[in-house]
């Protein structure tokens, strides 16, 4: 039941064309089954834009190129910004065929098609520990940029050469929110969070071998950070971190 | 907004005392914030009875005796059946002071105060592997009994002496649903499920030591059961199994 | 020793053709070695039909196409319904060559050949959280349908957009038993079980990455469900859930 | 070397009282050993206020009452706001003896002594799933309040009765940042994050038993949240969540 | 139905006092429910002696002193050897009151009351790595002795001083079966098994701290032994190892 | 220093050709560095035959076909029985080229070349739960046969149809030692061990999916067996179990 | 056989009092059973001093005060330096009664009684992250001091305030070996190792809560250190780290 | 700012060409942003040589051949020794094209290009348990050799034939530091460390199957070593061990 249908019903009651008792029954039945907030929204994606300010994002993992392209086209048709994460070459080719204006970010393994979105308040800084962390860092960066944020990349500043991150203190201190991406022991977020007064979103990566256990070591390190201001997302979840950073930067 | 209030609103619209536009705004605002299904239900617990056929159950773990007694009294006052699980002596004393007619099941560590509830269709059988599994088995049994089920207890039939469970085949075959409680290697549900054609609810217990890891061994064993019809609940969750068995037995 | 053979033996004793002492020895020896329930059942599969109401199901995982086809043919020859799970293209081709009337369910990765079976009492509803959970959900659905149940599919109702599942409340409330399939955080069973009064069989899937640990996150979430009525099967075990749902629906 | 000392040195070089070569050596030696950012800050805690906007917080866990009281007094003497977390009765008595104006928050197990701090921009909402999660939720609330934030408590809105959290949609939508505290399956953050467009800080708690594994189930659930905007802190880390929420609310 | 009852039935059929058809029904019903092997054995424990050569052993863990004493008395009354493992002082006092002739092995935490049992073929050697492993080693030793084996104790021969175990080569080589008890890294079984040609039963102990994880390190080490002839029992399961060693020594 | 060299030295001392003091120094130096037990044994493999009664066995896993063939030829040249486990087709071809008389056991993935070895005392029975466990069961069987044991195969007797294993009671009871191979929940060893009085070597397999975690579920189940007489080897370690069984059968 | 006995034997051969053949047999038999390195060493501890330069150290964990005092006295009597780790008050009292000159290190929970030992080559630096890590850091410091090393303590330099450790660069650079003790995320060893060119022994501590899992997070972080030169010991193993540092410092 | 630039600035202040206030501002700004230790070092790698005595090492894992070759060329151009670890054939070909004088170590999977480096003080001994551990052992050996150390390889001395390692006692005792590489149960470091008085760097390998869990069993065994002097690096981290051994050998 859309807001218009509700208005019509009430008008009918008012005009006597529909008995109040019948309207009562109709309304009760409808409302028990379905929250009104969704009335009149035929498409889930439209609703998410309304509710959260950004449309559904396509996680490419485990979907076929055809499926990805179809969903991407549906999002683009409505004029919404498009983001496909974890997209391989085949997915990119399928999307490109339908959306020639889309762009593929190779390192980030992401497909985007930007639209006008409200700009963020300040700058989102993405720091990463090593070169192997780049795909995840870039996924965060591409996500934040698509969502309207200015992004500053501070890469390859791992703690084994502590001077590297210290030298970037000025850039870190002027960020509004910082995403820190690190694998192996995952110590960089603690060091960065100790240097600044803004929120740090820590992203553990699966970079490493042996007792890194696919990112568990970095994840645990970040959850146990002795510095204030560090919250954590899933292993390799660059998209999630970029999305949270954008939310914070748009407050 | 209760059903009665909704009716009044519609009557006012019909009679012209309230403009349709104003009613429209009121209804939209209310419905966005609150699903109608809760209109007029001031207490959460009343609603659960309506929704699920049994009131809220009190998990005694981590609550003070005073808290437990207060919640128990509130449930009993409304005439609902009372069940407190994981209740120690102090909890029991606190409840007994306020509800002298309540009963304490020592082995099950449970407090009950029965009320009339619809009877189940058949019999719920509770099988357990060893004597150390009794507290969990009894928690399941007491739960099922309070919810209106006839309960058959088949205890101490662990698989190390397979003749013990084979001898109880007749009792198992005539059950409508079977709860199987076992610690250590947790193999009994597989054997029982292979003997019958009814659902088996498996409850791993924390009985054991060393590589039982507090019930993980039994839990994994049950999740990997090679027999059909076995579903599993949390370690030591006798209540949960009794509750599911009752649901099935009331279908 | 079949029931007929037993009768013959007793007749011979009665008629004096066989001495009681000799019959005593024969019976004792037989019974010590072999439970009578199996007398006269030359085939394991026949027995399972008798005991559990459905023949053995073929788990395709780790079997060669030739092995799968041979077992499938043996089951079909006896007139039993056939179900092969986790069947890839090669398995399907091998089965199709021997059983042209069989059918392949691509999403569910299952091969079926239906036979008349007793119909269930009500409706089995299969709910799933995301599109990546479909193979597991469809395995449950195909299983339940083959076992004689009417199946209602309620797909793509994950909790991140809670209105989606709320909108399906009516379909959920009228089910006799609900299978809920979810990966990632596995929260959907808790929400569904809180809305209905029937048993919920929760199936964690291996959908996700990083700290989903191949389905462990969803599995643990479901085992710790704060809602009543939730029991759990192995990760990705759609067949098991469909089978339990059918058992419950046939009570 | 303080900024003033540096100025004096340069003045001496300019005036010829100190040779440039000698000044060169002095500066090089000092700078190699000590980052200038710390010049003139005799106390670590003063520095943290400058760097992060809030002084050091005392984690009571594993410190003796005497140690806690001594650190607390040192912080209070400098006029900084005081926060001691995980403080038991003995710690509180020791602190009270030295700081009679301090206050003990029993549920949160926290000691505070507020000072004027800059107010936050909006409202921090703390949502919790069950009553057993209150100590952690209150630790977050007390932390956020001490740091100058208006706090809205939305407690006991676990997903097993989904209407409870839906009814609070308005309060959730008007928050600037939301802390969501939950144990057991930890599903509440996913549901809340799906309803709003602001950052959600998820706090898993150790509430539960068996396969909750001391909060691992909730932690994994939150890390795998299918909703956007969810970042996670350590198990039971109410302080950390409150601190991050305050940072975001002060941007 | 005992063998005698079966004979009576057959005699009645032979004599015509009982119709063959009725006897047929009676026999079928009985045999479906109960394996004949148990006919006439009223007590489970008697049966285990017959089946396995040794009566039920009482695991004291998680039983009350009264329960332990009652079971112990029942076993002793029948003239069976008594073994209670994991018995604390209270359990010992309760048993001693009823069975004054019983004996308490303090280090092994075991209660025994020996009876005549068949002697083993050779010698059971129990080797242990460190002094903290003694309780588990002694549990194995006491078990093996009670079951009729000559036991040779080779204690404190951990691998960090490899000469210690090398010096005992002669005693190890003349054993018929060896139980090796070790905590921490659990390396002793590999070294011992490499020196001899007889089976080695490895018992990991929970001795250690930190990354020993309550015996997991030792358990995994033993399961991965690069030496032939090593099989493993549960952490701290001295009884199990002694029992298996006795079985092998009685072949 | 070989026994002959030692004799020469002593002869020289006796004859006065070598001073006792010099011989003293030589002997001390040699003995500190090298245990005499190895004197004169140029080849490791010869020694193992002497020490353990069977030569080194080749674990094919992670070795190249050429390496495997070279080691196999070296063993065969000395007239020792050859066993290569985990051998794939390429390994088999490489070995066959050099040892045409060798044989490949396809299911067991093993290469053998038998020699005369002392026969075992009784029969080694290999029981397995399901058809997917066959490779591991056959590895155990082939190992035991090569080592001189009569092997009885009791396959496909999983606990989900408990009558299957019960029907084999006679064959199990007459074994001298039993190897039980099972994946998934790994319950079969408990049931078998409860039926017999001989040692049971349990072999968990990696058969299963989801929460079987590559055999951990079965491993834990077997370590926690409530039946006496069960010891356990590594996941999929059919060779190890066959080897231990042979050791026991040769006592 | 002691060196003297060996000499006597050779003298007897030389003088003709003992035939060479008989001496040959005697020597062979002895040497097969017992490595000569132990001849004449009645006490294990004397041998360890010879072999490793320091006598056996007493791990107090799980020993009774009486046992600890007896071992301590035996070590002290021989004039060896004494170290008892993990000693509580009761252990200290028992040792003090027998060795009044011993000293108790309260924070380190260690008992020492120093003797003259060779001094180390340089300085052992012990760095720790937080005040809760002090017991482990002090155990390392006390161990290193007792073994003859000059120890420099650099405490409370956790990475959340990175300037703290940077300020100590000079002290770190002049160490010969550094022990770094840290709990929670365990990031300090990576930062320190990146600043110096000497070996870093990392000690994870069990300090933390929730997802620190008793030190696992710190342990994994240290094992995955991206800096060169970091090796790791067991959780809370301050003694082990101090011992290794001393070995390195004595090279 | 290089030391020369600093000198120039001070000269300008002295001569009056630059006002002290302006110099003050310049110095403060520079120093806040950048630790002086990096002044004048444009390249990170140059700095590491200065700081740690060896340039950056290239971990080949997860880098493309082109990336590896580019980094390798950059290192070689500066005249630094080159080490690429975990290099496959493609990486080697790419490097060889640019650096024809480089060498590929096939077993170690490493590329080197040696330069003059200071020689170590003594000998680094690399011991390994089995032939499958060779790649990791050789990675350690190649690393140590490139860093200027004499390396002694003691391979295939696993503990299952304890005489093998005992026979190498002399070589072990004369090493200055020992790297011990072992998979499966990882017991070799304990045995070796018990024989010598020098530091042992233990390297667990992922060699094994089943419950070796990719090296966890060996890792835990080594962390729990009962011998003094054992520290541990990550699973398969031969490079790390060789690097630490070199550091110790250069003290």
Structure description:
The structure is a homooctamer of 251-residue chains. Chain A folds into two domains: 3-23 and 30-113, no CATH class; 123-249, Rossmann fold. Helices cover 43% and strands 15% of the residues of chain A. Chain A is built from eleven helices and nine strands. Chain A has a five-stranded parallel sheet. Chain A has a four-stranded mixed sheet with strand order 1-2-4-3, sandwiched between helices. The two termini of chain A are 33 Å apart. Chain A binds chain D through residues 35, 51-54, 57, 121-122, 166, 169, 176-177, 194-199, 201, 219, 223-224, 228-235, 240-241, 243-244, 247-248, 251, and chain D through 35, 37, 51-54, 57, 121-122, 166, 176-177, 194-199, 201, 219, 223-224, 228-235, 240-241, 243-244, 247-248, 251.
């Amino acid at each position: 039941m859309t807001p218009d249908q509700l208005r019509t019903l009430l008008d009918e009651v008012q005009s006597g064309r529909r008995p109040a008792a019948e309207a009562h029954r109709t309304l009760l039945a409808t409302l028990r089954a379905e929250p009104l907030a969704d009335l009149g929204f035929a498409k889930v994606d439209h609703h998410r834009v309304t509710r959260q300010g950004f449309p559904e994002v396509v996680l490419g993992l485990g979907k076929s190129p055809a499926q990805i392209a179809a969903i991407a086209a549906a999002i683009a048709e409505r004029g919404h910004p498009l983001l496909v994460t974890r997209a391989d070459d085949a997915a990119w080719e399928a999307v490109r065929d339908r959306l020639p204006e889309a762009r593929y970010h190779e390192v980030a393994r992401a497909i985007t098609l930007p639209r006008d979105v409200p700009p963020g308040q300040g700058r989102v800084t993405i720091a990463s520990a090593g070169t192997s962390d780049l795909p995840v860092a870039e996924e965060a960066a591409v996500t934040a940029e698509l969502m309207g944020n200015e992004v500053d990349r501070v890469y390859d500043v791992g703690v084994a050469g502590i001077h590297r991150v210290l030298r970037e203190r000025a850039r870190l201190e002027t960020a509004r929110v910082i995403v820190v991406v690190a694998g192996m022991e995952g110590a960089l977020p603690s060091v960065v969070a100790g240097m600044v007064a803004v929120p740090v979103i820590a992203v553990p990566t699966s970079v490493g071998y042996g007792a890194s256990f696919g990112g568990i070591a970095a994840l645990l390190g970040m959850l146990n950070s002795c510095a204030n201001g560090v919250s954590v997302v899933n292993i390799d979840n660059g998209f999630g971190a970029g999305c949270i950073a954008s939310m914070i930067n748009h407050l």
